[in-house]
Amino acid sequence: MAWVNDIIQGILLGGLYALFAAGLSLIFGVMRLVNLAHGDLSLLAAYAALVIVGPLDINPFLSILAVMLLLAVFGYVLQRGLLNHALDAGPLPPILATFGLSVVIQNLLLEGFSADSKGLDAGRIEHQAITLSDQLAIGWFPLITTLTAVVVLLGLSLFLGRTRMGRAFRATSDNQQAAQLMGIDNRYLYGLAMAISLATVAIAGVFIGIRTTFSPSVGPARLIFAYESVIMGGLGSLWGTLVGGMLLGVAQTLGSHLSPGWGVLAGNLLFLAVLAFRPQGLFAKQVHE
Amino acid sequence: MSLLELADISAGYGSFQALFNVSLSVEEGETLAIIGANGAGKSTLLKTIAGLLRTAAEKVRFDGRPIGDLPAFERVSLGIALVPEGRWIFPSLSVHENLLVGAHSRRTGAWTTDKVYELFPLLGRIRDHQASSLSGGEQQTLAIGRGLMSNPRLLLLDEVSLGLAPIVVAELYRAIPAIAASGTTVLVVEQDIGQALKVADRVACLLEGSVALQGLAGEITREQISRAYFGM
Amino acid sequence: MSRPAVRVERHTRASRTALPAAAVVVAIAASVPLWGSSNLMKTAVSFLTLLALAQMWNLLAGYGGLLSVGQQAYVGLGAYALWALSERAGINPFLAVPLAGLIAAIIAVPTAALAFRLRGGYFAVGTWVIAEVYRLLVINISWLGGGSGVSITSVGRVDRGTREVVVYLLALAVATGAIAFAYVLLRSRRGLALTAIRDDETGAESLGVNVFRSKLWVYIISAFGCGVAGAVIYLNLLRIQPDAAFGLQWSALMIFTVVIGGIGTLEGPIIGTVIFFTLQQVLSDYGTWYLILFGAVAALIAVWAKRGIWGLLVRRWPVDLFPVRRRLCLETACFPEDDSAPSPAGDAEAGTIRQT
User: Fold this and answer.
1) A167 neighbourhood in chain B, CB within 8 Å
2) Taking CA atoms, what residue in B is nearest to C355?
3) What pLDDT, on a 0 to 100 scale, did the predictor assign at position B103?
């Protein structure tokens, strides 16, 4: 029964990872950009929430909209001011630029907020659970997180599948120059993609901040979880990312069950196994040339 | 005033120059064919008009307005559409979605998805197919239909016949008079002289990056074209 | 019957003076133990090992096109190999340094088998994940000291003064070795293949270059270099903590140093290391601001001055101190005419107008 509980907790944890990985998946899909600062940006969101929540004394959930807006604007400016130019310059510059950004954000947070762990307090909801049996309980907060992830992914796929801009995103992903010939301004579109990506990162950042304490140095580890979810699920597949995140979550909870130190390692090893035996990921969207 | 005026255009890629001082004008409503051998600079010329290659603003005038320095996407909203060589359809989108993306610029006019399906019934039959599954002829048809969706004043067609069976090419060329009749100015670039001459009001021949011959389609002889084409 | 007067020129005016000058610099550096303080040598060890790491990353990314963010794996493995060989196997710690590099290189082979399945940005994060796996494995294996790390005590038997001198000379050897090796490698046939891959991977493949094998070799060599450098670094520090030894900060230092100095040149990493050390010393009172500045400058340079500081210098004063390319010379002229540093493909001017 303990195993079943572990698996359920792992799936719910995976929802959080998927919520966090969706933005990474989106911008890779649209502009083939791997954002190495993704994890640090989620911390930026958590600290932004901290700054908003503190003086107003409100529930961190209420800060989410403001943080989303803040990061979306930041993402748009970052894309148009720096990363669009990096994308023009070849394959190396975008990766190097986001890596530089990662170190800059991490150390700015360190200077601004010290290395001490911080947390967002969402009140009683964090500890309430639906008890199914002695050993089986589903926490309200993990459940809300996973539902939020599903809603965000659903929203993203509706946007991509049904709207004019969503079609433009997919067209640009297929062939950027051809998209320009349709009147699509790819620089604006990339800015929009980064804004959306960081808005989802903002949601994820606040949720993770409520779930666990955080310090400026944990960004890179988070990037890795998001990245593993995306690759395991298969590049370009949003729902694959959800499954990838859940697999990672289950591997981690089962690993921790064996030995407390093995959680993250088990997730990494599962990822390497997927890479070795199914490098295209589990739900890779068919690639067309 | 001509719809499109090109003045003294030189362009190329890196250290390779493809066009040398090309000047050309296109009148509203006419169908102009630009013919020339491989490497004569035809595609480069179309890219310069469409904005995939940029130049000094006043070297390209559209409806009197200097546009040589505008990016491609801005020229679409002015009414220039390029159907590129190689078609460049969006493989992961359906046929219908490809057409909808073609209308991204929201230019209004005669062309809608219904009108395109009317002109090319073939596309209507496969509207929900994923574009990656299309044959070469279907892709080319879709590319032209998609170009029409932006309701262009000037439609640029690059090597429509390339790699297609003659019967498919003939089918596609039958649509051009209908397009021209809707008021759209058409500029076709072709290696296939026969097809080009059938639809064109006027012909310009490019040879090694320069205009070697210009004239009304009815007044130019085959022999003149051959000479301009091969540079003899 | 005279042979056509064509020859392949592989030196430049500047390089003929640069090589003797480099020899003089190395000789002076080698004399430091005779006159330098123990503090100077300790600082010099971190300078020289960073220089070696930067050269290794430059070889990997600047020439092999392999943008790894996981070379800290080999710094850590080199450090732990040093510890295992000297503390557990009883091998002389100084002799254990090259062996540590060898162990890192051996581990690099299966690692590459996995990492090479990924491309571009995903290769970068993939190498990073693998470095994390090594860190977590070390932490979870109690034989290797677990999360709190291990100490290298066997060198305690060597007198402190001697130890410092030997460690310093090892670091000097590693740094000069890295530069000399890269220089010789790039001037060899294999180096020509690498440069071709750097400039145009598909083109190189079509000319018969085995791209995969060339990249694999560069990856293994780089792992060896990072392993040796890691061993020397921890021979200097004497205390290995897994979080630090496998820390991402090694990648940050290597990458920023090379990017700022000038990627894809041998001079770049040297300049970058000098700049980093100067910045670190000047801003030492201001916490991590040197790192913020360094990261920001690297990001900006990566986007707007792809050839780095060295590239900017060369544009102004055309010199090529370590020429690794060939020039074709006829009786009266050489091609390319100037003997300045080459501008690799993908430079700004080539990028303005490009088809598809």
Assistant:
1) 93, 97, 100-101, 104
2) B13
3) 94
What distance lies between CA A209 and its chain's CA centroid?
13
Q: Which of B165-169, C17-21, C51-55, C277-281 has the lowest mean pLDDT?
A: C17-21
Q: How far is C82 from chain A (nearest CA, A)?
A: 24
How high is the pLDDT of residue C147?
A: 81
pLDDT confidence of residue C345 = 38
pLDDT digits (tens, 9 = 90+) for B126-146: 999 999 999 999 999 999 999
d(CA C126, CA C216): 16
ipTM of the complex: 0.92
Domain hosting residue C276, numbered range = 36-350
DSSP-derived secondary structure letter, B232: -
pLDDT of residue C329: 61
Contact between chains at B11 and C353 (C-beta distance less than 8 A)? yes
**Is the torsion defined by CA of A152, A154, A158, A160 positive or negative?**
positive
Instruction: Dig out the tokens for A286 from the structure.
Output: 């068919």
Query: How many residues are recorded in chain B?
Result: 232
Helix (H, G, I), strand (E, B) or coil at B34: strand
Cβ(C35)–Cβ(C160) under 8 Å? no
Average pLDDT of the residues of chain A = 88
- Tally A–C CB contacts below 8 A: 141
Q: How confident is the model at residue C351 (pLDDT cuts 50, 70, 90)?
A: very low
Those chains having 3 or more beta-carbon pairs within 8 angstroms of chain C are A, B
Token pair for C192: 């020509």
Domain boundaries, chain B: 29-49+79-230
C265-279 pLDDT, tens per residue?
A: 888 999 999 999 888
For chain B, the residues whose C-beta falls within 8 A of a C-beta of chain A are 50-52, 71-74, 76-77, 81-82, 84, 88-93, 97, 100-102, 104-105, 132, 146, 150
Instruction: Compute how many other C-beta atoms are within 10 angstroms of the C-beta atom of residue A204.
Output: 28
- In this predicted structure, the answer to whether residue C114 has a pLDDT above a threshold of 50 is yes
Tell me the pLDDT tens digit for each residue of A191-250. Answer: 999 999 999 999 999 999 988 889 998 888 889 999 999 988 887 778 889 999 999 999
Outline where DSSP puts E strands in C124-173.
Answer: 150-151
Chain A residues within an 8 Å CB radius of B91: 174, 288-289
Asked if A184's CB is within 8 angstroms of B73's CB, the reply is yes
DSSP SS3 for B66: strand
Beta-strand ranges (E) seen in chain A are 129-131, 137-139
A269 occurs within a structural domain: no
* Residue C122 in tokens: 């995903």
- Terminal C-alpha separation, chain C: 49
Question: What is the CATH classification number for the domain harbouring C277?
Answer: 1.10.3470
How many whole angstroms separate alpha carbon C212 and alpha carbon C230? 26
CATH number, span B29-49+79-230:
3.40.50.300
Residues 6+ apart with CB under 8 A from C126: A231, A275, C70, C114, C115, C117, C118
User: For chain C, what is the domain count?
Assistant: 1
Within-domain flag for A203:
yes
Within C6-119, residue ranges assigned H as helices are 13-30, 32-35, 38-57, 72-83, 93-115
